[in-house]
Amino acid sequence: MVNSVSSQDNLVSVRNLTFSRGSKKIFDDISLDFQRGKITAIMGPSGTGKTTLLKLIGGQLFPDHGSVFVDGKNVHQLRRAELYDLRKRLGMLFQSGALLTDMTVFDNVAFPLREHTHLPESMIRTLVLMKLQAVGLRGAKDLMPNELSGGMSRRVALARAIALDPMMILYDEPFTGQDPISMGVLVHLIKSLNNILGLTSIIVSHDVHDTSAIADYIYVLSEGKIVGQGTPEQIQQSDSEWVKQFMTGAADGPVHFHYPSKDYVDDLLSIGKRY
Amino acid sequence: MIRFIQNLGKSTRISFTKLGRASYFLIQIISGIASVLVRPRLLLNQLYSVGVLSFLIITISGLFVGMVLGLQGYYTLSDFGAEETLGVMVAASLVRELGPVVSALLFAGRAGSALTAEIGLMKATEQLSGMEMMAVDPVKRIITPRFLAGFISMPLLAGLFSAVGIIGGEMIGSGLLGVDEGAYWSQMQAGIDFYDDIINGVIKSVVFGFVTSWIALFEGYDAIPTSEGVSRATTRTVVNSAFSILGLDFILTALMFGDN
Amino acid sequence: MQHTTTQDTLVGLFVASGIVGLFFLAMHVSNLSSFSDQDSYVITARFENSGGLKVKSPVSAAGVKIGKVTSISFDPKTYESVVQLNIDAKYNTLPDDTTASIFTAGLLGEQYVNLEPGGSEEYLKSNGKIEITQSAIILEKAIGQFLFKSAEEKK
Prior knowledge:
The structure holds 3 protein chains of 3 kinds. Chain A is 36% helix and 23% strand. Chain A is of the alpha/beta class.
């Protein structure tokens, strides 16, 4: 196991990570680095455990082997209070937004401020309005989460994620199920927030086009292994069959169209037989 | 046969691990109590949704149960010429048994299932893990206030249920069937003991409130985070609460009223 | 803000009504209001046989409940039953030649202590003793005596 602290410009480094769920290995001895101030994307087909990786980085799950360093600290060796202190400096954007359904948009964004700071209500109001303005939803502050569209609730969740001015934001499938306009808005927001606030971003996605438009570095995962990595240009020109198939979305390739089965003709002829 | 033994072993193992998780969960809940008491607003909100919203069903059911007891008690007692003791009969059955038990069952159906569904949905929509990632402990912030609210509401609701029921029994007994009103109350006061009956009834309802809230919150927290998982958990809450309430009632009754 | 104040009010009403309900049970339904141990005094009565008398059985005079039995014990020297009665302090004018008897309320009812005031000028004091007692009527004994008597008469 590598125990050395990650180098200066890597905010997060994952070393020899193995994680399994039941008997299925989700990650098999992978190592990744996430550079400070950059947008790093993790791509791969559904079910490769990309969300699991974010939860491992956030310390919500424990790996079987290996370690995760965030800002020089081994996440899984921190005591609870230290882990919570670390999490205050992380923002996470969940796929569903994960807004608290019994509060207004305003209260949702104010939630981390009220929980972790003792700021006066007037200052909280100013901060919340600033964050909502940044995502363009200041006018929606009195709506309830169930009155928002999917894209809007993700933007509110983003405002909430930046409420405590974190050093890093983890995005879980930010583009899934969005119409082209909301998608464009989100892509723009992620890019500009990263540049203006000097954040580090990790995006988990299977949306090839939009993710490669904003990512500085891409890891492609499949079946617990890293099958490709590099800048978007390098990935586009990758000579790995697998990466090619993923990037172009071809129906057949190293990932087969057919679920593993026995021979087609045999299967057809065996109708009527009991087996 | 070996298969059967195997299945038995497996289900024993599963129920033990579940019990273990539930106990650990309870410890987490209780360790959060201090942090909730510092912020009474959280508790107040939950007292509203757990207590106030159960108020109507509890009082109306209490009234009807009391009225039925009045009717049935009158018919049975008048066969022995003992209608005068209707008050004791109604009050004893309500204060000792029906008040705590029926109000706890109604509470499990009304508030318990709502709690499970709410927590389960919060889990399914990632609100709980979202909170964890915001460095807010969901057990302290979400679960403990609800637990305390259930724990506090239950004896109040059971007391209301019994009080309303006794008045309902009086309405039927002396209002409709002509039992002497003075006899109804004086016989009741002579027959019901403050410590043996009232306090024991309150202890029962405190225990039921504790267990029902614990079950409801645990099932929600432990639910499989899908819509099917949440609906199953809700059913389990009602079934398990009912079993626990009735089983515990037997044990508590045996302990409390045994040596008399 | 409007929302939270109505919520506060409703929660307040709920808690208040719950407490009123419990208070009602305590004061109006149970025996707590009719009798409490603080303002009472103790007298002792010795019975040859206290029958089915129990702790907490009522003590009454002229049909009105004035106290309760607090303990029943057996005196191994005199072979008597020693019954302690707690009498409400309001009723402090019982003469010291009061008679205590154990009666049964109705044919199958509970047994209770009945106090029959005598004519003395002196009142019973706290920790006083009742000298004249009449034991419980044991139903089996009474029936036995009755049968025995009627058999004798027939002879």
